[in-house]
Request: fold
Amino acid sequence: AETVFHPQGGGQPSDVGRVVGENGVTFFVDNVRVGENAIIYHYGTFQHEMSENEDGARCIPFRSGEKVKLEIDAARRRLHARLHSAGHALDVAVLRLGLELRPTKGYHFEDHPFVEYLGRLPADKGSSERLIEALTLKIQELIEEDIATELYSTSKAEAASILSGGVKDVAHFPEGAQVRLVSVGGNICPCGGTHVKSTKELRGVEITRIKTKKNVTKISYRISKEGKERQIS
Reply:
C-alpha cells in the first residue's frame, strides 16, 4: 500500500490529517513514522471507539483490501515545507556571508527551529546581534531573487561528485541507493523533506538567536504565518 502522508524525519515533523473508509469510519492521523523494512506507520485515533468481537478482541474498523481516502492537512504541510526550506535558505545565507560553518543538524519544527553548524564565528564578523541582522538581510535577498527549488534523484556516486562534501555527504546511503538532492537558493544537499517551490515563499523568516558552545554554532530562526509577514528593512 502507498500513502500520501510524509513521515517524520530529517528534522521535519510528519503530516497530519485523516483516513476515511468506505463506510465513513475516520482515523485521525497525528503522527507518521518509518519503521523497519521501510514500513510506514500512521499513529492516531479513530473517530469512534473500536468494537469487540465474540472473543473480546478489539475489531479494526477498516477491512483488509478496503479502499480508503487519505486527506492531509494542507496548511500544516505548507508550514512544514516553509520551515524546512527556511533552514536550507539559512545555509545559503551563511555561505554568502563567508562564514566557515558546516551544517550538521536541522530542527525544522514550529516550536523552535534551528540549524547547528560545526565551527565557530570569527571575531572579525562582529557581535552576534550584527550577524543576526546580516543573516536576516541575506535571507531577504534570497526571497527577492525568487530562486526556484530544484529536485534531483541520482546515484550515490553521481551525488558524491555533485556535492561539495563529496563522498562524506553520502556515506550514510547504502550502495546502489538512489539519492534525492534538493537545491534551495542554489545550494544542493541530500534531503528527503518537503519544500517550497521558490524562495519567494519564505517571506517572514527572521534569525532570532546565535549561540556557540565549544565548536558548535546554533542559529535559531522563526517564520511568520503567511499573510502576517514583517518586512526586514
About this structure: The longest helix spans residues 74-96. Residues 227-233 have pLDDT under 50 and may be disordered.
